[in-house]
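Hey, resending since the last one bounced:
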Amino acid sequence: MSDFAAIAELLAQNRPGYTLPQQLYVGEEAYRFDAEVMLKSVWLYACTVAHVKNPGDWYLFELGETSAIILRGRDGEIRAFHNTCTHRGAKLCDGRAGNAPRIMCPYHQWTFALDGKLLAARNMPEEFEKAAFGLRPVAVENAGGLIFLCFADDPPPIDRAKADIAAQVKLYDMDRLRVAVQDDLIEHANWKLVMENNRECYHCDVNHPELLKSLSTYGFGKGLPEDGEGDVVDDARFDAMLEEQRAHWQALGIYHDLIEFPEGWWHRVARLPLAHGAVSQTLDGKPASGKLIWPHGLEPTSLSIWTQPNSWHHFCCDHVVTFSLVPLGPDRTLLRTSWLVHEDAVEGVDYDPENLAAVWRATNKQDSRLASINHAGIRGDGYRQGMYSVEEKLVDAFKTFYVERGAAALAARGA
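The structure tokens again:
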């Protein structure tokens, strides 16, 4: 097994305010390090409670060769287990999701309860104890309806992030939502470049016409003075509008101060105004669904949550969009986007799936192209570590998280 000594040397070359060394973006060893070590040492966003809404619902989250089953038990609890039979190691569930009263191995029909206990194993020796052969658990946490996994034997703390996220997401009562649309997009770029692209809107004005019908670039790398962005743009009109909006949100009881990766934590939570009078992230700014998901009517605002290292989420008055990604190789990334609506919303009556997904489908396609040309350029001999703009401080925050957690994961291995 590699000790990843070359990766340690590359991580040590990190320069604050600059991009990563070339091989951390394009190298095969860097991909193996990310999938086998770094990403297994941190909390990863996997899905929402709506993806496992009913008892018996299961959903797979896969990272490299490791697969986890997320299950809703008969008691309503959400648990996660390695997708590996404890008999001879066969993969238990295949496909993206499903529903079953129990989990049965397709190889020898060992059967497991939804809480992971082994129920049946044929013709085993007399000394065999079923209690010792239950499914192997994976650490799982529910942050207000967002489900996070960690594959480490000793997961890092999650309490602060869980509390901060849950405090604001509870408005949207995710237990009452369901998945209306889900897309998988394979991006031809390293996963870190896909994440870096998401962490800035320096590129948005030229590349995202659909997105900018309802979102401004304020708050996505510029425009919020209290988080140190006052030197990026001086817009008194926006500041006055934001102050007025925040007073209104305070009157509604929904205002919270910006949370921006506090004290080394890995989450950002911001309530932001929508642009151009929009009340939802749609092409016309009108609601995508007639069934609202919060108690405050049509409001020109959305709640945005970013978590390191693999997710971002937008909560509107009528729907939620969640994004997760995992690396598939040095130059391939799976981006999974889910659109959630109220559980009582009826397709074709309350919402049109195409309209619901239109803005972010277009944006994802545009971002995929940008990430691919970024990756293609980095592969060449002309690449050198580049300097971030003042609008790319959130990119630098992601890169810093990656470097610090990567170095810590190597240290824990004794590398």
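The two ends are 12 Å apart (CA to CA).

Sorry for the duplicate.
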